[in-house]
Structures are given as structure tokens and as C-alpha cells.
């Protein structure tokens, strides 16, 4: 019995030991599983947060950042990085007189080209813009004729570009070609001497009208220096320099083309102050009607004059002590001149006298011209504005 009890006790102890080992293993696995679950829960918010901070830009946002707009490519509208790159370009709108000058050029050119071609010619101003000189040379569609001209009074150069359509149309008109005939155009061949001479005459007509357009503002004469067909040989400024580009459209019924005038800012710098002026209406410069009206009104205006016999400064205390009967001694003689003054401005001098029962003054010296001229007033006002 004792042996059986020992066997039973040993078997029971072994069974309890196995069950304890199983429980410890199970509890260890559960602890490890809980630990892994906690680590996963901690990593998932970080992954979500990192995914929220990383954002990929789409194509529209990239174009907006770089300043590109495929739908409306306009030279005058820039934003993003393009606006920073082109921030040094001076807009022609700061020179309001340029539009008036080139509007006048369009009117003059319409009449001149009609007389030059004996045909119905219409000239239109397509636009004014500011460009870089290098970008403009690279954008010229070839073949074309480029005329380099010099502004004699401004001592600088400009450029006139005539497109191929206008070249063949003008040659066709001047040589008597039919209006409905097909123009034979051979691409790649150089322009003949006849074509170059005819286009040179047309460019001289355009520059002659440009002389008249600028004449009320500043006398200038444009002379054609040379004609080029390669834009690289027509470099009159550095590629990065800013320039004014004027586009003109010339139509002769069913034919025509474009002509462009390029003026670097260095060329128009001598008349920059004149181009900054603003005039109302189409007239600019002197207006004889207004000058005549102003002169007539000035001649009929009334002016008060003061005849000053003597001036003396004395303290206010002494003036307040004046009494009836006091005598003021004037340090003057009857032969001393009397000063005639308008306000604070001294005009002239004279001598006192009498005409009938009235006291009169005879003028003895010429009228004194004011030292401050109107131009000096304008300069003083401009300096005051710049100082503020």
C-alpha cells in the first residue's frame, strides 16, 4: 500500500509539474503577444503622421510655382519664379507718351504708305511690350530683313524687322503684281538686290514718319545704317538689356504682313523725362489757343500796387505806447525814390509828385524781372517731391 501511495504521489507530482510548465509557457506567449501588439499600436500613429506630412504636388501646382500658364501665355502677366527672373524689366506703361507717339506714327504711316504703294494700305498698332534684346533676336521668324538705324540726336541705335510676308507683298505691289495672283515664294534663297532696295525704301519711309512722330516731343533723325538677314549680325545691345518692342500690322487688301520696331531703353534715355509726361487728348506740346486765352486774361487782370515811402522796424512795446499827437520821424527826403511793390515782390522805383488834386508816382527805373523762372519753380517742386 505504501508503495502504491508513493507511486501515486510521484505521478501526481509529475502531472502537477507538467500543468505548471504549460501554464507558464502560455502566460509567456501571451505577454509576448501583448508586447508586440503595443509596439504595433505605437508605430501606426507615427506612420499615419508621416504619411500626412508627405504631400506630392500636382502639375497645376508646379506650373503655378514656376510661373507657367499654358492656357494664357502672356508676356505681360508673370508670376512665380518667372516674375522674379523678369523683375528687372521696366514696363513701357511707365512711359505714357510712347503710346501717343506711336499712335501718331500709325496715322502718318497710313498716309505715307498709301502714297508709296499707290494702293489701299491700312496700318494698325498691334501692341507695345517690354522684352529682353536677346530673347527678341531668338524669337524672330526667319527669313526676315533687319534694318539697323541710328538716332542721330540721341547717339544710339534701334532695329526695324520686316517679316517675309510683308517683304513679298510689298515687292509684289511695287512691281505691279496682280491682287489675286499666287505669290511664288522660294524658301531658303537669299533676297535679291532689287528686293533689298525696295524694302530699304519702305523702311526709310517708316523711319521718316517716326521722325515726325517724335518731333513735337524731341527733334530726332533716324538714319538707316545697314540691312541684315541674320539676327546675329544685328546685335545693337547686350542680350540682357531691356527694350521697347512696337508691333505694326500692314494690310493691303488681301496681302500684308508685320513690321516691328525695337528701341532699347538706352536709346530713349535722353528723352526719358519727356516720355514720363502725361497729356490729355491727342494734342501734346504747345497749345496756341490756350496760350492766347491766358495772355488776354493776364493783360486784363487787375493788380494792386503799394507805394512804399519808408519802412522801419521797432519793438512792439514802443508801438503800444503810441499816443495821439506823437510824431514819427521818417529818415527820407523828398528827392528819395519811392518803391513800388506788389505784395512782397518789388517791381520798380519812382518819384512822388502831384497831378491835379491827386498824388502821383513817376516811374524812374525799368521793371525788375523776377529771378525765379517757371523752370526753376518746376525744378524746386521736383526736388521737394524727391526729398519727401
UniProtKB/TrEMBL annotation:
<dbReference type="InterPro" id="IPR001543">
    <property type="entry name" value="FliN-like_C"/>
</dbReference>
<keyword id="KW-0966">Cell projection</keyword>
<keyword id="KW-0997">Cell inner membrane</keyword>
<dbReference type="GO" id="GO:0050918">
    <property type="term" value="P:positive chemotaxis"/>
</dbReference>
<dbReference type="GO" id="GO:0003774">
    <property type="term" value="F:cytoskeletal motor activity"/>
</dbReference>
<keyword id="KW-1003">Cell membrane</keyword>
<keyword id="KW-0969">Cilium</keyword>
<comment type="similarity">
    <text>Belongs to the FliM family.</text>
</comment>
<dbReference type="InterPro" id="IPR001689">
    <property type="entry name" value="Flag_FliM"/>
</dbReference>
<dbReference type="GO" id="GO:0005886">
    <property type="term" value="C:plasma membrane"/>
</dbReference>
<protein>
    <recommendedName>
        <fullName>Flagellar motor switch protein FliM</fullName>
    </recommendedName>
</protein>
<dbReference type="GO" id="GO:0071978">
    <property type="term" value="P:bacterial-type flagellum-dependent swarming motility"/>
</dbReference>
<keyword id="KW-0282">Flagellum</keyword>
<keyword id="KW-0283">Flagellar rotation</keyword>
<dbReference type="Pfam" id="PF02154">
    <property type="entry name" value="FliM"/>
</dbReference>
<dbReference type="InterPro" id="IPR028976">
    <property type="entry name" value="CheC-like_sf"/>
</dbReference>
<keyword id="KW-0975">Bacterial flagellum</keyword>
<keyword id="KW-0472">Membrane</keyword>
<feature type="domain" description="Flagellar motor switch protein FliN-like C-terminal">
    <location>
        <begin position="297"/>
        <end position="366"/>
    </location>
</feature>
<comment type="function">
    <text>FliM is one of three proteins (FliG, FliN, FliM) that forms the rotor-mounted switch complex (C ring), located at the base of the basal body. This complex interacts with the CheY and CheZ chemotaxis proteins, in addition to contacting components of the motor that determine the direction of flagellar rotation.</text>
</comment>
<feature type="region of interest" description="Disordered">
    <location>
        <begin position="1"/>
        <end position="27"/>
    </location>
</feature>
<dbReference type="GO" id="GO:0009425">
    <property type="term" value="C:bacterial-type flagellum basal body"/>
</dbReference>
<dbReference type="InterPro" id="IPR036429">
    <property type="entry name" value="SpoA-like_sf"/>
</dbReference>
<dbReference type="Pfam" id="PF01052">
    <property type="entry name" value="FliMN_C"/>
</dbReference>
<keyword id="KW-0145">Chemotaxis</keyword>
Amino acid at each position: 500500500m505504501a508503495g502504491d501511495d508513493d507511486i501515486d504521489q510521484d505521478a501526481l507530482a509529475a502531472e502537477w509539474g507538467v500543468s505548471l510548465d504549460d501554464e507558464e509557457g502560455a502566460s509567456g506567449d501571451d505577454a509576448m503577444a501583448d508586447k508586440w501588439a503595443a509596439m504595433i499600436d505605437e508605430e501606426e500613429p507615427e506612420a499615419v503622421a508621416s504619411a500626412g506630412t508627405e504631400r506630392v504636388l500636382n502639375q497645376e501646382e508646379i506650373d503655378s510655382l514656376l510661373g507657367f500658364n499654358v492656357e494664357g501665355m502672356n508676356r505681360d502677366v508673370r508670376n512665380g519664379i518667372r516674375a522674379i527672373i523678369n523683375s528687372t524689366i521696366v514696363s513701357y506703361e511707365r512711359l505714357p507718351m510712347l503710346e501717343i507717339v506711336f499712335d501718331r506714327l500709325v496715322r502718318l504711316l497710313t498716309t505715307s504708305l498709301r502714297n508709296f504703294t499707290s494702293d489701299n494700305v491700312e496700318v494698325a498698332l498691334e501692341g507695345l511690350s517690354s522684352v529682353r534684346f536677346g530673347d527678341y533676336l531668338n524669337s524672330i521668324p526667319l527669313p526676315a530683313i533687319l534694318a539697323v538705324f541710328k538716332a542721330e540726336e540721341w547717339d544710339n541705335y534701334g532695329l526695324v524687322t520686316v517679316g517675309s510676308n510683308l517683304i513679298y507683298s510689298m515687292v509684289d505691289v511695287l512691281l505691279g503684281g496682280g491682287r489675286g495672283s499666287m505669290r511664288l515664294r522660294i524658301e531658303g534663297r537669299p533676297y535679291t538686290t532689287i528686293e533689298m532696295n525696295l524694302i530699304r525704301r519702305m523702311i526709310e519711309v517708316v523711319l521718316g514718319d517716326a521722325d515726325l512722330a517724335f518731333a513735337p516731343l524731341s527733334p530726332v533723325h533716324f538714319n538707316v545704317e545697314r540691312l541684315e538677314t541674320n539676327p546675329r549680325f544685328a546685335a545693337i545691345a547686350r542680350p540682357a538689356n531691356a527694350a521697347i518692342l512696337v508691333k505694326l500690322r500692314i494690310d493691303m487688301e488681301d496681302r500684308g504682313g508685320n513690321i516691328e520696331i525695337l528701341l532699347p531703353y538706352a536709346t530713349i534715355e535722353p528723352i526719358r523725362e519727356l516720355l514720363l509726361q502725361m497729356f490729355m487728348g491727342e494734342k501734346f506740346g504747345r497749345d496756341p489757343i490756350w496760350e492766347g486765352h491766358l495772355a488776354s486774361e493776364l493783360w486784363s487782370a487787375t493788380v494792386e500796387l503799394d507805394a512804399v515811402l519808408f519802412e522801419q522796424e521797432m519793438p512792439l512795446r514802443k508801438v503800444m505806447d503810441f499816443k495821439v499827437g506823437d510824431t514819427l520821424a521818417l529818415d527820407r527826403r523828398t528827392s528819395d525814390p519811392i518803391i513800388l511793390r506788389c505784395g512782397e515782390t518789388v517791381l520798380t522805383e519812382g518819384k512822388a509828385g502831384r497831378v491835379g488834386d491827386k498824388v502821383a508816382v513817376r516811374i524812374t527805373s525799368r521793371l525788375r524781372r523776377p529771378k525765379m523762372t517757371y523752370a526753376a519753380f518746376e525744378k524746386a517742386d521736383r526736388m521737394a517731391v524727391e526729398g519727401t
